[in-house]
Specification:
Distance between the termini: 37 Å
CATH superfamily: Spore Coat Polysaccharide Biosynthesis Protein SpsA, Chain A
Mean pLDDT: 92
Protein name: Glycosyltransferase family 2 protein
EC number: 2.4.-.-
Shape: globular
GO molecular function: glycosyltransferase activity
Structural class: alpha/beta
Number of strands: 10
Keywords: Glycosyltransferase, Transferase
């Protein structure tokens, strides 16, 4: 029986006391137990930090870091990546959750196929923890496809540092995850999907992702300001993004 490689789980937190217990409990409940959770708190003003310290005292696999000033989710994630010791880097935000067999299934999928970056299907949940529709991404995606639609849910993604090295998120306030996947897809041909629902994305709460207009504005800004695309090129990819986003968020299986 081969040894299970260590998985480093990257979690940013900011005023997350209402949801972070469920997020961390879903990690502790994993059937795959060789993990470390690295939570970087982005200067929370509620009791998030005290909750985190309690978890760290109960489980030595949980490590807590605190930023000196609020820098955004990308900065917090990068701090955790810097301190990560695992072969695999996985992501879970402090308001999302995992299926108990998420790591077990996905790491096997990666090891068996020697995949460098993978993602899974996921299901939406509302603020009252009611299950909503499921999102089933395409079975693979490449750089040009991802530009048209960020099909890789951050809460589902895992990459292999043995194949890629450590890769950090660009320090931008929005769309850091999409920027990271693009950096990785510059090095490999495809990211691959394990098409099982293995994560739960919380919507309808107070966050950037709960405001569709903000999403559209940030996506346009991503093309124009981060990627430095021309007006025509930005409009080309943004048109695909609009159509695919509508289909994705209005499709229930």
């Amino acid at each position: 029986m081969r040894l299970r490689p260590l998985v480093s789980i990257i979690m940013p937190s900011y005023n997350s006391s209402k949801t972070i217990r469920r997020s961390i409990d879903s990690i502790i409940a994993q059937s795959y137990d060789n993990w470390e959770l690295l939570v970087t708190d982005d200067k929370s003003s509620d009791d998030t930090l005290s909750l985190l310290k309690n978890y760290a005292e109960m489980d030595e696999r949980i490590k807590v870091f605190v930023l000196n000033e609020n820098g955004g989710a990308g900065v917090a994630r990068n701090n955790s990546i810097y301190h990560a010791s695992g072969r695999y880097i996985a992501f879970l935000d402090s308001d999302d959750e995992w299926h108990p067999k998420k790591l077990q299934k996905q790491i096997k999928f990666m090891l068996d196929n020697k995949y460098a970056l993978t993602y899974t299907a996921y299901r939406k949940i509302d603020g009252n923890n009611n299950l909503k529709g499921s999102i089933y991404p395409p079975m693979r995606t490449c750089y040009s496809d991802l530009l048209k639609s960020n099909v890789i849910g951050c809460l589902t993604a895992i990459y292999d540092t043995e194949l890629l090295g450590k890769i950090y998120m660009p320090v931008i306030r929005k769309r850091q995850d999409m920027a990271l996947w693009l950096l990785i897809l510059e090095k490999i041909d495809y990211a691959w999907c394990l098409n099982d629902v293995l994560a739960y994305y919380r919507e309808g709460h107070e966050s950037l992702s709960s405001n569709k207009l903000k999403i559209l504005k940030s996506q346009w800004g991503f093309y124009r300001d981060y990627l430095k695309y021309s007006l025509f090129k930005s409009a080309y990819y943004f048109s695909f993004y609009l159509v695919k986003a509508y289909k994705k968020h209005n499709k229930t299986k």
